[in-house]
Amino acid sequence: MDLSLSIVSFPLDEQTANDMEQLLDGLPAEHKTVLHPSLWKAAAARGFAVIAYTGQEELIGFAAAADMVGLHHYEWSLFVHPDYRRLSLGTALADGVSHALAQRQAESELVAFVNGVDIAAFMESIGYCPDFNEILLSAEPLPDDSLPDGLALVPYAGQAVELAELLTAAFDDSVLPIMEHNMIDPEREIWLLQKDQQLIGTATLVTEEKSLWVTAFAIHPEQQGQGYGKQFLKWSRNLAFQRGLKEILLDVETKNQALHIYEGSGFRRVQTISYWKHGTV
């Protein structure tokens, strides 16, 4: 069979994006997230796709990679039409990704697949090993937006020093480049939780299609255990309600001790995503 592979950068042209969407038709929505469909045609997106067409111009497989926060760190995944999975097409697509990552001088990469997909043998055959798992959580928008007295949620307005101190205390200083990216990306909204005008929490919100994503979520370690995280999440669910969105989403590593806070705040487990890294890393 005659096949042609090519690498195309985001944003994709309309025809290529439509072909990719058609190939995924019928796939559960949650299984598509690792392929970054919201970024394919986004003007500011950093990423690329490796696409495989037959001689009859039928798209039968592709890989999609995205530099999520502009730090030369790429997350990618691939999908091959079931009728063509014995042609080593997956390996060819992965080779195309490796070539494109080298061209872009990527500093790191992770490969993501939804758990339940029989992928382990394939990943090990191309030199990757398991790294960690994340759980995708979802909650419905909430009409109630009340906050206890003394708490307020305000948009970021230049409090860079205070925000950096909070995030470093909650994580470590490796989070600072992500914070800086969130500050300059117009699609990302940084919100600050204040207690009596003191910064105690933060999250960055991103709207993708009809979903509101909560990222970079942190409560200062000295303020944890007092229900402030639940109040922040409750407010975020109300914001999704006000904006007419269908759901609010976040993901958390399976080993994260805060998982019970999310589930206690009305979030349910949607799926688990496995991440793989190259064996030489």
From TrEMBL:
Cross-referenced PANTHER family: AMINOALKYLPHOSPHONATE N-ACETYLTRANSFERASE-RELATED-RELATED
Domain of life: Bacteria
Name of the featured protein: GNAT superfamily N-acetyltransferase
Keyword Cytoplasm: no
PROSITE patterns xrefs: GNAT
Domain N-acetyltransferase positions: 10-143, 151-281
Gene3D superfamilies for this protein: 3.40.630.30
InterPro entries: Acyl_CoA_acyltransferase, Bact_Acetyltransf, GNAT_dom
Keywords: Acyltransferase, Transferase
Membrane-crossing segments per the record: none
Glycoprotein as UniProt keyword: no
